[in-house]
Design a protein that fits this description.
Elements lengths: L11 E9 L5 E10 L4 E5 L6 H8 L7 E6 L2 E2 L5 H11 E4 L11 H5 L11 H14 L15 H13 L5 E5 L7 H18 L2 E5 L3 H4 L4 E6 L2 E2 L3 E2 L1
Parallel strand pairs: 3-8, 3-9, 6-7, 7-8
Antiparallel strand pairs: 1-2, 1-4, 4-5, 9-10, 9-11
Helix pairs in contact: 4-5, 5-6
Amino acid sequence: MPAPDPVTGLPLSLRDVMVAAPSGRVLLNVPAIDLAAGATLAVRGASGAGKSTLLHVLAGLRPVNRGQVLWGKTDIASLSDTQASDFRRRYIGQIFQDFLLFDEVSALENAAVARLFSPKAERAAILERAADALLSLGLDPQDPRRATTYSGGERQRIAVARALAQRPAVLLADEPTASLDRAAADRLISDLLAAARDHGIGLICVTHDDALATRLDRVLTLTDGVTERAHAV
């Protein structure tokens, strides 16, 4: 498998990608998407339009019926489950609407959770990056409080720190501001964009949030699984 540098990001190229349900219903039909390394993209559309399916395809979590999903020179759609999992661990950071934290442990333990699944030689660096990411997001990595005691906005920032601790080439975010009030959402948007800019990584967000979508480079709209032409904001 090619080994691109995760610091500089990865270009994305989708070609003739189609995903169908077992019934045969087409869930996603993407003739082409091209995104430069380090670029940002909002994915929009009504409920059921195929947004989450697209995000899962980009993460190598959903098989495709046909087509290529190229991160740099690696077609993640052609990898085995084990290879795709390894690719995600090395190059893709994921942020979820529901945070998916371990509530009974600290912010730092959550942000550095990738240590549990990484080779011993990488664990110290992951812990250091997790602490640095928490600091950059305004959280104290030495705070011993359990994650359940943090506010919604703080919990999402812990989740962002967890993604950044992987030193990813790209962040994939599924409705990252949906569970937050407006002030917390605006803070998170600024944090995500700063992280993408400072680390030279790409950012792809599925979102209904106009405030987030308008701050990204391009917007892609899905309708019944079919992509409309992406346009610059």
